[in-house]
Amino acid sequence: MDIKLPRLGEGADSGTVVSVLVKPGDQVNEGQTIIELENEKAVAPIPASASGRVAKLYVKEGDKISVGQPILALEPDGAPSVAPTPSAPRSEARSAPAPVPQLPRQSVEVPSVDVAGDLTQNESVAASPTVRQLARELGIDLSRVRGSQRGGRVAVEDLRAYIHQIQRLAFEGSTASRMAAAPAPKPPVTEKIDFEKWGPVSRKPVSSLRKIIAQRLHESWTSVPQVTQFDEADITGIVALRKKYVTKYEKKGASLTLTPFLIQAVVGALKKHPIFNSSLDDATEEIVFKDYYHMGIAVDTEQGLIVPVIRDVDKKSLLQLSKELAELAEKTRQRKVATADLKGGTFTISNQGGIGGGFFTPIVNKPEVGILGVGRGALKPVVRGAKIEKRMLLPLGLSYDHRVVDGGTAARFIVEVVQALEQFKESEVKI
User: Fold this and answer.
1) How far apart are CA 281 and CA 292, in angstroms?
2) For residues 422 and 77, what is the distance between their CA atoms, to the nearest angstrom?
C-alpha cells in the first residue's frame, strides 16, 4: 500500500520535503513520523497512516509534493518480503462500471479562476475512478478541489461543490468580468547576467522559506500603501525595573526582556485605537475590527525571519508573556513551530534591539494594518527641566496601511505607546 500526503490544513495543499526519516527495509508503526515537510514557514512532521515495512521511497529531500501524492510504499505487517507470484488471468466477465453522475451543465464565463490547471496532477489525488473520470470529462484539476473524506479524499459531492463555487464566481459582478476580459499583463523579462565575467562567484539555491518570505513581502509592499511614523521612548525607568526584577523572573523560569514591556504598551494603545487592531477585507470592502489581541513577534532564525503569534496577550501578565515568549522563540528557531502558530495575528512587533541598529521601516504584515519596529536603545543627553540628564532612549518606527489608518491616528497611537513605556507601573512587573 502507498502512504500518501494527507491534507495539511486550511489552504495548505503542498510543501517541500526537508528530511526523510526512514529508508527501504525499515519497520514503521502507525503514527510514526516518516518525513518532515516545510509548509508556509513551519516544518511539520508527517506520520505514517499504517504500520508495516518500507518497500520503496517515492520522495527525497528537496522534493515539492502535493496532497494525495505517494510518499512511500509499505508492506503491511506479515506480508512476505519476496515478490508476489503473478495472479491468474482475469475473467473477461466483469461487473459493469458504476454510472457516472450527470451534473447540470451551464455555459458560463468564469472570471479569473483556473479550472483546468494541470490535469496530469489528477492521478496523484486521492479519489475514486468515477470521480477521476468525471473530472477528466469536465476538464477539472482535482488538486484544486478540497476533499471532505478521510485523508483528503475527493468525493463526487466535493466536485459538485467546486463547480457550484465556480458558477457563483462567474456571476459575482461586472467588475470581475471586466478584469477577466482585460489582457493579462506580461511578466517582465528577466535579463540573464553573467556574473562570472567579472570574477569568481559561488551559487546557493533559494530555500523554500526564503521564497515564501520574498513572496509575502513583495505582495505587501506592492499592494499596501505604507507610511512609517518615527519616535523615541525614554525607557530609563523600564531598564531600572528590569534590573530590579530580572533575578526574580529567572527563579520562576522566565527571561525578563524588553519585549514583554513592549507587548503590554502596544496592547493598551490598541484598545484606545482599535483601527490598528483591524484588517481590510478587500472582497467585501469592509474594515474588520477584532475583539481579540494576538501579537506577532518577529524572530530572527538561521533560515530567515519567522513571525509566530502569541494569543490573547491582553489577558496575560508580564511573567506569563516572558515565559511564553522564550518558549515560542526557541521553538521557532528550531523550526518546530506549528503552522497554526504563524497565523491569526492582529499586530506585529519586530524588535532588533538585541542585534543593533537604530530606526528602520518595517513592512506591514498583511492582512494586519500596523507593525512596530524597535531598534537598540542608546544613552543620550536629554533636557529635563533646567538640567541635562543621561537617559536611555529607544527608537521606534510604526509602519501602517494608509488605506485604513490616517496619519493623525498613527501619530496619536505611537504617542500612546511612548507614554505607556515611559510611565510603566512597577505593579505590573511585581510577581
Assistant:
1) 17
2) 66
Across residues 13-19, what is the average pLDDT?
Answer: 83
Q: CA angle, 259 as apex, 269 and 321 as ends, to 5°? A: 90
Burial state string for 48-82 with b = 16 or more CB within 10 A and e = fewer than 16: bbeebbbeebebeeeeebebbbbbbbbbeeeeeee
Residue 54 and residue 24 in contact, taking contact as beta carbons nearer than 8 Å: yes
Range of the structural domain that residue 133 is part of: 119-180
83 band by pLDDT with thresholds 50, 70 and 90: very low
Give the pLDDT of residue 124. 66
Q: Which residue has the higher pLDDT, 335 or 84?
A: 335
How confident is the model over 163-167, as a mean pLDDT?
Answer: 76
Please tell me the distance from the alpha carbon of residue 130 to that of residue 112, in angstroms, as a whole number. Answer: 28
Question: Which has the closest alpha carbon to 242: 372, 392, 383?
Answer: 392
* Catalytic residue positions, numbered: 402
Strand partners, 250: none
C-alpha cell at 340: 497554526
| pTM score, whole prediction | 0.65
Q: 325-366: per-residue pLDDT in tens? A: 999 999 998 888 888 889 999 999 999 988 988 999 999 999
Same domain, 71 and 156: no
| Domain-located, residue 334 | yes
Nearest by Cα to 396 from 354, 332, 349 = 349
Q: Please report where in the chains the cell 493598551 appears, as a residue.
A: 268
111 close to 166: Cβ distance less than 8 angstroms: no
CA neighbor of 298 nearest in space, from 361, 355, 232, 373? 373
Q: CA-CA distance, 232 to 421, in Å (whole number)?
A: 10
CA distance 44 to 338: 7
- Find out whether 67 and 7 touch, Cβ atoms under 8 Å: yes
What pLDDT band is residue 394 in, cutting at 50, 70 and 90? Answer: very high
Same domain, 269 and 361: yes
Measured distance CA(335)–CA(49) in Å, rounded: 23
Mean pLDDT of 304-317: 94
Number of domains in the chain: 3
- Select from 41, 38, 29 the least CA-distant residue to 61: 38
**pLDDT above 60 (res 46):** yes
Residue 28 lies in a domain: yes
Task: Find out whether 40 and 309 touch, Cβ atoms under 8 Å.
Answer: no
